[in-house]
Amino acid sequence: MTGWLGALLLILAGYGWGARMAARQASPVPVRVALLGTLGASVVGLALVIEAFLAHQDGPLTVGAVGALAAAALAVFTARE
Predict the structure, then answer these.
(1) Nearest to 55 by CA among 47, 44, 43
(2) What is the SS3 assignment for the chain?
């Protein structure tokens, strides 16, 4: 179960990275806070999916990695102006 939580954290972190990269104007959230938040979610999510992978569950790692890349691409290519 914690592996799927890690996959969700990776997907949310991927979207956060993509949204931050696609931002064309100043954000009300300081850059350091936004980057530390997404980095923290990435590290915790990765630790949880690796733990699940070592317990012979392949699904959370695959879904988390592919989902994070897809969420980042979605945030970059659907940026609002």
Answers:
(1) 47
(2) CHHHHHHHHHHHHHHHHHHHHHCCCCCCCCHHHHHHHHHHHHHHHHHHHHHHHHCCCCHHHHHHHHHHHHHHHHHHHCCCC
pTM metric for this prediction? 0.87
Quick one: which of 9, 28, 11, 24 has its CA closest to 74?
Answer: 11
User: What's the pLDDT tens digit per position in 4-55?
Assistant: 999 999 999 999 888 888 877 777 778 788 888 889 999 999 999 999 999 9
By the 10 Å C-beta count (0-12 exposed, 13-18 middle, 19+ buried), 36 is classed as exposed
